[in-house]
Amino acid sequence: MDIVSLEVAIDLKRKEMYASAEGRELYSPDVVRVSQELDVLLNLYNRFNY
């Protein structure tokens, strides 16, 4: 995965997280799952840059 694809994936996952959090508690299992998936993408992104 190149950096541009990773940035797109992060943006999409972030939007998914916001959508899943709408109307739910932030500790809802669905919100936490998507947040953890976003964390993985962000960690990969950080490896590219540092």
From TrEMBL:
Q: Which Gene3D superfamilies match?
A: Helix-loop-helix DNA-binding domain
> Where are the membrane-spanning stretches?
none
Q: Which InterPro entries match?
A: HLH_DNA-bd_sf, Spo0E-like, Spo0E-like_sf
Task: Specify the protein name.
Answer: Spo0E family sporulation regulatory protein-aspartic acid phosphatase
Recorded source organism is Paenibacillus farraposensis
